Amino acid sequence: MQNYFSIFDLKTDFEIDKIKLEQQYKEQIAQFHPDKFANSTADEKSQALQNTSLINTAYNTLKSDLNRAIYLLELNNIYPFDEKDTQMDAEFLITQIELREKLETLKNETEVEEFIDKINPLEKQHIQNIKESFKMNNLENAKKNVRELRFYQQLILEANKLLDELL
């Protein structure tokens, strides 16, 4: 399997140059545009399609803080969402329950917007924690924060969906 970072000539690290990622993505994807393979063999067209798929998967993985962190952990044989690994911080589990219950009680746009405003800093803090964890090569802490970040991002997604329904 090709390392996604190497596809875009990036250092294998949580902190990446997102502008370079975007530029490299555009360059890579342009190389395999279907128009360039209009007169090619079926095998060449198939290979171009496979390359395009790999480039898109790599790009979508690396542009997302959460997906990039998961990918980095997996490169180190750490799988943050392994079904066998159910150990979670008790305080965080209580927080999850409380926040889900709070989300279910929200009745209007203002309440939902205030709820999202409360969660956004938690999301940003977890991204910062992940960044620091990778910097210090503390992969267990990175895993913990990745798991929690996914919860907060899912909660924000659900709150935004509720907000759309209320509008």
Automatic annotation (TrEMBL):
CDD domains the record matches: DnaJ
A Pfam family found in this protein is: DnaJ
Question: Which molecular-function annotations from GO does this UniProt entry contain?
Answer: ATPase activator activity; protein-folding chaperone binding
GO BP, one example? protein complex oligomerization
Q: Which GO terms describe its cellular component?
A: iron-sulfur cluster transfer complex
State the Gene3D superfamilies in the record. Answer: DnaJ domain, HscB, C-terminal domain
Q: Which PROSITE patterns match?
A: DNAJ_2
List, alphabetically, the InterPro entries matched.
Answer: DnaJ_domain, HscB, HscB_C_sf, HscB_oligo_C, J_dom_sf
Q: What UniProt keywords apply to this chain's record, in alphabetical order?
A: Chaperone
Q: Where is the J domain?
A: 3-75
What HAMAP family does the record tag this protein with?
HscB
NCBIfam families xrefs: hscB (TIGR00714)
Family membership noted in the UniProt record? Belongs to the HscB family.
Write the protein's name: Chaperone protein HscB
Q: Which organism is it from?
A: hydrothermal vent metagenome
